[in-house]
């Protein structure tokens, strides 16, 4: 997208923010504008300006825009070595607290939150834990809340779980029904799924672990640093942050968090940094 179209795209996202409160203004241009072009094409709008007028008037189009703008690819125990490190290095520290609070930001369809709940269950910490799992995309949150996944996703989940060092039969956490698997109500009951927009909403509590993986890749540095400050503010002393192994902190973010394992995207709240 070049010249005039790029200007129209900026105007589109400014209007969507001003009138509807969804802020994509500081998402990385390339993928954001590609997604907008796909949205305009799919609905056969003559121009971005026409799309703008229609989105403002039609809530169903806004829902579709949100689904188009967000990438919700995820899986259980994604990057198994990260979960292995959480199991061996982070859970023993969490075990020393009477209450454990975890925030999964950008949880998509919920698999990451359920993976953490399984780790906690394995070591008998689930009853002490509350997991808050948030996303901007309401359709993804609906799937997450239902806790029902296709059976073939469980095949991959089992492989990832074992690669992360898990030793229990994975089927302990779900019942299979036809081509679907229903996760255990015990896992479901420890997770609170709700809508939270990292671009506009503020901190909402104090946590021992925050996971926000594969979300920063869509943000410009300025927006990412806003979120890093919220995370630093929201972590208790010695609290951990997990970002995607292929992501990195901004220059400002590196002052707020010390590496626990940079390669895996694991950090600990710095004792010196200030949000
Ligand atoms: C690629 S998924 C990552 C899912 C999971 N964390 C993982 O690593 O497998 C990115 C998620 O970030 C969410 N997201 C994008 N912008 C967001 C925002 N401003 N606030 C909250 N979530 C956002 C998307 O809706 C999407 O579900």
From TrEMBL:
<feature type="domain" description="CheR-type methyltransferase">
    <location>
        <begin position="1"/>
        <end position="270"/>
    </location>
</feature>
<dbReference type="GO" id="GO:0008757">
    <property type="term" value="F:S-adenosylmethionine-dependent methyltransferase activity"/>
</dbReference>
<dbReference type="InterPro" id="IPR022642">
    <property type="entry name" value="CheR_C"/>
</dbReference>
<dbReference type="Pfam" id="PF01739">
    <property type="entry name" value="CheR"/>
</dbReference>
<keyword id="KW-0489">Methyltransferase</keyword>
<dbReference type="InterPro" id="IPR029063">
    <property type="entry name" value="SAM-dependent_MTases_sf"/>
</dbReference>
<dbReference type="GO" id="GO:0032259">
    <property type="term" value="P:methylation"/>
</dbReference>
<protein>
    <submittedName>
        <fullName>Methylase of chemotaxis methyl-accepting protein</fullName>
    </submittedName>
</protein>
<dbReference type="InterPro" id="IPR000780">
    <property type="entry name" value="CheR_MeTrfase"/>
</dbReference>
<dbReference type="InterPro" id="IPR050903">
    <property type="entry name" value="Bact_Chemotaxis_MeTrfase"/>
</dbReference>
<keyword id="KW-0808">Transferase</keyword>
């Amino acid at each position: 997208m070049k010249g005039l179209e790029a200007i129209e795209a900026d105007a589109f996202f400014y209007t969507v923010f001003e009138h509807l409160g969804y802020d994509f203004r500081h998402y990385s241009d390339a993928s954001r504008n590609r997604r907008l072009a796909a949205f305009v094409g799919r609905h056969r709008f003559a121009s971005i300006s026409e799309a703008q007028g229609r989105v403002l008037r039609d809530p169903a189009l806004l829902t579709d825009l949100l689904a188009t703008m967000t990438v919700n690819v995820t899986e259980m125990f994604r990057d198994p070595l990260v979960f292995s490190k959480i199991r061996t290095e982070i859970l023993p520290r969490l075990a020393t607290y009477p209450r454990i609070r975890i925030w999964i930001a950008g949880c998509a369809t919920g698999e990451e939150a359920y993976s953490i709940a399984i780790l906690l269950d394995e070591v008998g910490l689930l009853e002490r834990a509350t997991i808050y799992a948030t996303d901007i995309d309401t359709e993804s949150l609906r799937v997450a809340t239902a806790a029902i996944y296709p059976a073939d996703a469980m095949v991959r989940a089992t492989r990832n779980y074992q690669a992360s060092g898990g030793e229990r039969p994975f089927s302990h956490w779900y019942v299979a029904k036809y081509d679907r698997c229903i996760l255990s109500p015990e896992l479901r009951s420890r997770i609170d799924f709700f809508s939270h927009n990292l671009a506009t909403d503020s901190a909402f509590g104090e946590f021992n672990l925050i996971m926000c993986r594969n979300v920063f890749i869509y943000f410009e540095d300025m927006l990412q640093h806003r979120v890093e400050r919220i995370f630093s503010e929201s972590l208790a002393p010695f609290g951990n942050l997990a970002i995607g192994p292929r992501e990195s902190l901004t220059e400002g973010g590196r002052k707020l968090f010390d590496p626990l394992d940079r390669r895996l995207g694991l950090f600990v709240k710095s004792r010196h940094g200030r949000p």
